[in-house]
Amino acid sequence: MPRRLEPPPPPPERTFWELIPRRNFRRVLFLVIVLLVVIALRRTGGGAFRGLLDAVAPPPPPTAATAGGATGAGFQPLRVTPAPTAPGGGAHP
Question: Is 49 left (phi over 0), alpha (psi -120 to 50) or beta?
Answer without folding.
Answer: alpha
